[in-house]
Amino acid sequence: MTESELVELELATSLRLPVSYRKILAQYPSFPVCEADPDFRPQDDGLYASKEALWDVNVDDVDYVRTIFPPTYFVIGDSGCGDFYAIDTTNQDSPVYISGPHHYQNPDDLIATCEPVSESIELYIERLTNDIKTWQGCKPEHGGLLRRCIDTCCAILLVVFALISMMTFAFITIPLYFLQRVFRYTRS
Questions:
Q1: What is the spatial distance between Cα 138 and Cα 132, in angstroms, rounded to a whole number?
Q2: What is the pTM of this model?
Q3: Which domain does 38 fall in, by range?
Q4: Cα–Cα distance between 97 and 136 in angstroms, integer?
C-alpha cells in the first residue's frame, strides 16, 4: 500500500496506525510466502493488504466492528471463519487480537469479546507465513532439508516395494496358470 492510502485510512478512521504495521503494509508482498504457489498471498488468510479491503471493514462496517473491538482497534484481516484480527493502535508493538465468539451461534454468544493472538504484528506475520506454508504443502523453515531427504527416501522405497510385489505376482501366477492348463489337459 502507498503512504497516501494509509493516510486516507487514518483520516477516515481517526486512528494513527503504528509504525510496525505501516512497515508490513509497505513491504507487502515481499515477506516470504509459499514457494509451491507464489501467487498465494496472506490476505487470503489473515491479512488484508489492499486499501479496499481495509476500508470496507474499518470505515464502511465500523458500527459492527465497534461491537467487537474498542474504538482504538484497527481490523487487519479475518480468519475466514467469521472472526476478525485487529491491532491496538495505541501500542507501537501492534499486538494482534481475534474477535470472538461468533455472533448468534449459541444463546451464550450474544456478547462479543476479543482475545490476544500475538504480542506483536511481526510475530503474527511470522506465524501466518508458517501456517500458509504448511497449508500449501510447503515445508516450514525448520527441518526443511532433512524432511525432504526422508520424503525422497520413502518414495524410492515405496516404488521398489511396488516393483518387487508386481514381479512376485507375475512369477507366481504365470507358472500356476500353465500348471493348471497342463493339469486340465492330462485329466481329459
A1: 8
A2: 0.61
A3: 3-135
A4: 24
CA–CA distance, 25 with 10 (Å, rounded to integer)? 14
Name the nearest CA neighbour of 103 among 86, 83, 133.
83
Residue 141 sits at the vertex; the CA angle it makes with 124 and 1, to the nearest 5 degrees, is 45
| DSSP assignment string, the chain | --HHHHHHHHHHHT----HHHHHHHHHTT-S---TT-TT--GGGGT---SHHHHHIIIIITHHHHTTTS-TTEEEEEE-SSS-EEEEETTSTT--EEEEES-TTSSGGGGS-EEEEEESSHHHHHHHHHHHHHHHTTPPPSTTHHHHHHHHHHHHHHHHHHHHHHHHHHHHHHHHHHHHHHHHHHHH-
**pLDDT surpassing 90 at residue 64:** no
Asked if pLDDT for residue 104 goes beyond 80, the answer is: no
166 with 93, same domain: the answer is no
Q: Per mean pLDDT, which range of 118-122, 145-149, 153-157 is the poorest? A: 145-149
**CA–centroid distance for 93 within its chain:** 23
Number of domains observed in the structure of the chain: 2
Within 10 angstroms of residue 36's Cβ, the number of other Cβ atoms is: 11
Distance between CA atoms of residues 176 and 104, nearest Å: 68
10 & 94 share domain: yes
